[in-house]
Every structure is written in structure tokens, then in C-alpha cells.
Write a structure and sequence with these properties.
Blueprint: H1 7-24, E1 45-46, H2 53-65, E2 70-75, H3 80-94, E3 105-110, H4 114-118, H5 121-124, E4 132-137, E5 140-141, H6 150-153, H7 156-167, H8 181-185
Parallel strand pairs: 1-3, 2-3
Antiparallel strand pairs: 2-4, 4-5
Helix pairs in contact: 3-7
Domain Thioredoxin: 25-168
Protein name: Thioredoxin domain-containing protein
Organism: Amylocarpus encephaloides
Amino acid sequence: MVIRPTSRILRATRLLRASIAPRCQLAIPIARSFSATKDWKGRNRIYDSVRRPDDFQSYLLLSSSSKTPLITLWTASYCSTCQTILPLLNELVSSGVGEDEGGVAFCEVEYDANDILTSDLGMRYMITSMPTLFSFDRGEAQTQTRVTDPRKMKDPEFMRAWIRTEARRRGTGGGGSATGFLGGLFGLPK
């Protein structure tokens, strides 16, 4: 006895094959010309707000692996100045400021979130005022370029220049803890 599929089963099989087939095809390599220079144009990334230390560590690792500086804005829910600076910074990063220099990643760290407050993140990075604009490159805190003055953070031109400066790092470090006073004592570059 031979069982023949109904037209309904045949239609479902054809639909299934049509939806799977494009994903199963092999990718054809694209020929690219050889170049000795790097493509410096990067893409900016905006991450979700940080409310747990694990999220912060994940973003640090992601930015380190992609050699993209991570810009963090440390805010608190009670800080009205933070609520005016955050949209400006979001707009600048999403509009592509810094992409020509290599790109940046950005996240807001909600300092008054319960898990962040109970961790040592604020103490580790010496966050003493809200808002604080802080950059990380290769996972290292860039203490020399920290911004705590809200008047500077509200100035779009200052923020554009600051983001571009941070984007130029591209995993090269500089300005971190190893280049300060102690770095000079131990023969590291100033």
C-alpha cells in the first residue's frame, strides 16, 4: 500500500524548503583588494543601561575585544543634570561622532541601582559626583580624561571633541593609571 501526501502537506513542505534554502546556501567569498593600511572607520555602539556589575564587566570585555573605547556616563535617578546630559550624549554617539576616528561604545551606569551601590565599582573608579563621564580603553580606566564638570558635559562642541579624542585611542591605551606618577618612577612612558 502506497501512502500519497495530500496537497496540504505538499504545500507545507514547499514553504518549509523555501524558508530554509536561503539559509543553507554557501556564502561565496568576495574578492577584496590588498591594502596595507587599516580601515579606521568604525561603528559606534550604544549598550543598555548598566544596573549590575556583571553587565559592566561584559561591556568592558566587548569593548576590549573589539579595540573600541567604552565611554560611560555615571548617573543617578535623583540627578536632574544627568537627565539632561544623557540624551545629548546618546544623540552624539548615535549620530556617528567618533566613527571616523575608529568608533566608540557607550553605556550609562546607573550608580544608584541596588546591585551597583552594593558593589565596589564606584570605589574602584573613584566616582564621587554625578554625573561623571569616564572612558575605558583595553579595560583600563582613563583617569586623565575623566569629566565631572556638568557645564562642559552640556556643551555639544566640547562633547564632540572629547568623544573624538577617546575614539582615537583604538586600543592603544594612554592616559590610564600606568602612565601617571608611578609609571614615570618605573620607567614606563609618561
